[in-house]
Amino acid sequence: MLLQRTFWVVLVFITGLAAANVHPVESRPHRILLDTDVDTDDFFALLYMLKLNRSEFELEAITINANAWTDAGHAVNQIYDILYMMGRDDIAVGVGGEGGILEDGTMLPNVGGYLPLIEQGNSTAGGCRYRQAIPVGLGGKLDIDSNYGLRKGFLPQGSRKYSPLRQPTTQQVLIDKISAGPIAVIIIGAHTNFAIFLMNNPHLKKNIKHIYIMGGGVRSRNPTGCCTQNSGSSCQPRQCGDHGNLFTDYTSNPYAEFNIFGDPFAAYQVIHSGIPVTLVPLDATNTIPINEDFFKTFENSQHTYEAQYCFQSLKMARDTWFDDQFYTSYFMWDSFTSGVAVSSLRNLHNQNEENEFAEMEYMNITVVTSNEPYGIYDSSNPFFDGRRVPKFNLKKGGVHSGHVQTGLRDPFCIVQNGKGRCQDGFTKEVTGAEGVRVLVATRAKPNPDTSSELDRAYFKSFLDVLNHPQQTGRFNFTTQFPNYKEVYYKPDFGSKKQGKPVVFDMDMSAGDFVALFYLLKLPVEVINLKAIIVSPTGWANAATIDLVYDLLHMMGRDDIPVGLGDVFAVNQSDPIFSAVGDCRMCMLLEDTLAAAIWTREMC
Description:
Strand order of the largest sheet: 3-2-1-4-5-6-9-7-8
Strand content: 5-15%
CATH class of the largest domain: Alpha Beta
Mean pLDDT: 88
Radius of gyration: 26 Å
Keywords: Signal
Family: Belongs to the IUNH family.
Largest sheet: 9 strands, mixed
Shape: globular
Signal peptide: 1-20
GO molecular function: hydrolase activity, hydrolyzing N-glycosyl compounds
Number of helices: 19
Structural class: alpha/beta
CATH architecture of the largest domain: Alpha-Beta Complex
Low-confidence stretches: 5-25, 585-603
Domain Inosine/uridine-preferring nucleoside hydrolase: 32-372
Number of domains: 3
CATH superfamily of the largest domain: Ribonucleoside hydrolase-like
Helix content: 25-40%
């Protein structure tokens, strides 16, 4: 009898082991680290992940890519405010760092990721050969940094904010969280941060169980910028049919997508790292545009603060879109990637690797970092030009040794009366040893419910998750401060004789704000400050204009008009597409001293 009982116990044990091998159960939630450039679609992805069941998915850290669509200071504060709204101040946030890369390729600790690896030297100053493809003003970094002016008026204010010398760096957060054990990484910006981590910490690669990437275009055909039958003979197709989506740069590079183009060499390091990669390229995101039916359904489905913030941001993006083709030009890029990643993690042990939101296919791809012919030295490639030993010990005559695109109008890239020939940042399908086997999302799956107005499966999931009552935002700005009211302050100078009228032109450096305080504190009988002109081409970016408004409000001078100057210095905007341009910056005078001397001379 004992022998028979032992037999059944052993049989049950073996059967259990077999079942576990077929359908293993995760005893702990999937740990996730998100690397983001905090574009509008990025925080859609972030909020989607924050709403998921924490027993299944645990977002543990966010690192900010400061090399693309946002500036680090604005981006990190928006992330802190979103996390505070969602009650997730426990999530680590990393941004920047003051480390550099020496001439011999040695990486110092805490490289900040402000520059692509090809431009990174031993400081945080450098060129912008790739970043200049991103608009700086309207429709670009100004709108993204401020989230179209919505951020400060909607998000609540918590205790966490950027603070010099106290802010954890990107590399500190990456090392800390990846050292703690197996983790999945989702990259929805340029790859600079993560490439630096991999190159500096190869011993920690074993803890990264999967990388999910939004970026690139493999077999994609850009559906925007096309001429229709009703366009007429005057219509000139723009990026129609291109692999990439660089709408500011398709005449020189029709192959690249913004996230990969932000740092092609970094993307190459990530995809060729040997870590399993799932890529969500334009091939898939081009099949999930924000159509009018989704927009209207979303408008009627705002039951949480996070849903309201996302919709208001999306509406502002639509209302300020540069043409009337928003519903066919704005896609679910990063937010769709978060859905694909989550579904993939749920089915990680499914041999068929089914994904509920996207059709998937394995492809052999690489990232183009330089253009053929290889082995030429034309002053475009700092990895090789003027070096006896290439930087990072790269192979002479190898795939990284060709011409590297130097800017929007690089003559090497321009083909007369044709498409550009540069392929920097192209996620190219290849055969042979140069390719890496990557799981690629090729198309967004349709909604199984054919009676629904939402024609994509992820549309339904996105709205359901965002409006779910669990793990919802606690409050927004107005409910956090119910007694807050907007007041317009204008001083009454009465019969005072006003002094000399002055217009103050500032670039919003720290010294400028001290100078502005000085001018505001002077008696109005001496100096009558009539207006402020803000120049965003110096020490601060355009979105910092909000600080000027706040300072004037604090001083009771809401009556002083503030004008925003040109986002480019003279002759730096692109002659063809004026929203983009070069990024050279001049050093400035000591502003406070200059203001004091100028005031004394005036008086």
